[in-house]
């Protein structure tokens, strides 16, 4: 197959391919091996599904209903582009007896619309607004896999990990925030075998790009003092967005802007030296040179001295997570957490901020005991060795895969203590 993201190559018989995939799925669930012709993207997703503790006979759970669903949808960024998505995909879905679906970055379905009879059929497997269709919850499926890998993807027939979903075919594409590049959710089309055609994947991808373009146009003009947005989670080099301009900062400049954003009152040169450098031999001259270069990047008037401070308000994605945690909105905080704060930074003060944010969120996840949120953390790169989270996950979702991973971590801890 020339494109591994497409479900069927030109000329393939969908009936025969579906039959072959069912046999392959049975082989995988019984023996753990992936035979041909399962695509690499699907095989990887099946393995992630197993590691998350998903069983082939599971079903999606509905997390949001009624007023909670309405409030969450109204505040979600994708609500602003739903009229466009409906215009582009709605008629196609209704006429073709398909469904249009839009999910958030956690794979939670926000809107499911289309042909009434198809909606009723889909409702029997909880493919409904408010249901969670993340890979970690229901295994391989187009919207969940699209947000997991950040790519448009088709899922055909028995490529779905859960058996009750295997009569369906779907294609989905992620929608990104045009300012920060973060995944906001995905646009999906779900229906019969005909959606395995390459055009359906290209179609949803075009709709997702149109949604991103409209989001960029709909970005409101900011009133009051000029402000900036800082993206620092899950990346070593921060993105600073201000006045329609996005700048990728160097690692050292990323650390400086993070610290100054955290201290709007400003920091003296000595305070910044201690916050940035473990090596006490680093001189103020080195810091002044860095600040001069940063001032040139930020532009005139945006970086003051004596003390060093930013002259514009800066909102970072880390601050969003902290604010949601303080409000007790654990799911919303987990959704906004894209990874550790500047994970490669060794600056002492940045490392403290990184630990405080991660420890606060993981403690909230353990306390709330939501199996899907715990699974998302445990299977993320930053959580795969987190013993406390794996223990909490095993308590609320005691699957064989979870138990096996927990036992391996505890064995490693015992060996380390013995050493």
TrEMBL record:
Domain of life: Bacteria
SMART domains in UniProt: Trans_reg_C (SM00862)
Domain OmpR/PhoB-type: 244-310
Coiled-coil annotated spans: none
Keywords associated with the record: DNA-binding
Pfam families: GAF (PF01590)
Protein's UniProt name: GAF domain-containing protein
Annotated source species: Streptomyces salinarius
């Amino acid at each position: 197959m020339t494109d591994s993201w497409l479900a069927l190559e030109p000329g393939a018989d969908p009936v025969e391919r579906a039959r072959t995939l069912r046999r392959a799925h049975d082989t995988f669930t019984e023996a753990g091996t992936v035979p041909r012709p399962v695509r690499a993207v699907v095989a990887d997703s099946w393995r992630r599904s197993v590691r998350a503790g998903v069983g082939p006979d599971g079903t999606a759970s509905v997390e949001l209903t009624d007023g909670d669903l309405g409030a969450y949808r109204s505040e979600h960024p994708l609500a602003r582009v739903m009229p466009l998505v409906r215009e582009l995909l709605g008629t196609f879905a209704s006429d073709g007896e398909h469904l249009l679906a839009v999910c958030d970055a956690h794979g939670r379905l926000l809107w499911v619309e289309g042909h009434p009879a198809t909606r009723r059929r889909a409702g029997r497997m909880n493919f409904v607004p408010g249901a969670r269709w993340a890979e970690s919850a229901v295994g391989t499926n187009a919207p969940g896999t699209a947000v997991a890998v950040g790519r448009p993807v088709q899922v055909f027939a028995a490529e779905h990990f859960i058996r009750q979903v295997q009569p369906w075919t779907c294609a989905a594409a992620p929608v990104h925030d045009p300012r920060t590049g973060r995944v906001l959710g995905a646009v999906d089309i779900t229906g019969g075998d005909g959606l395995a055609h390459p055009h359906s994947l290209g179609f949803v991808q075009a709709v997702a790009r149109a949604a991103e373009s409209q989001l960029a146009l709909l970005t409101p003009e900011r009133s009051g003092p000029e402000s900036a947005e800082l993206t620092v989670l899950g990346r070593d080099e921060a993105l600073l967005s201000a006045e329609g301009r996005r700048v990728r900062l160097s690692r050292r400049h990323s650390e400086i802007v993070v610290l100054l954003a955290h201290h709007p009152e400003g920091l003296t040169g000595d305070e910044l030296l201690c916050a940035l450098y473990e090596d006490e031999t680093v001189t103020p001259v080195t810091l002044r040179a860095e600040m001069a270069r940063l001032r040139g990047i930020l532009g005139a008037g945006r970086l003051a001295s004596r003390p060093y401070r930013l002259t514009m308000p800066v909102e970072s994605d880390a601050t969003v997570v902290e604010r949601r945690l303080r409000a007790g909105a654990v799911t919303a905080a987990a959704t906004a957490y894209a990874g550790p704060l500047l994970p490669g930074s060794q600056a002492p003060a940045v490392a403290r901020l990184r630990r405080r944010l991660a420890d606060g969120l993981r403690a909230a996840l353990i306390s709330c005991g939501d199996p899907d949120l715990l699974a998302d953390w445990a299977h993320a790169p930053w959580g795969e060795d987190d013993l406390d989270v794996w223990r909490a996950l095993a308590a609320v979702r005691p699957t064989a895969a979870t138990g096996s991973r927990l036992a391996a971590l505890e064995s490693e801890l015992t060996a380390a203590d013995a050493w």
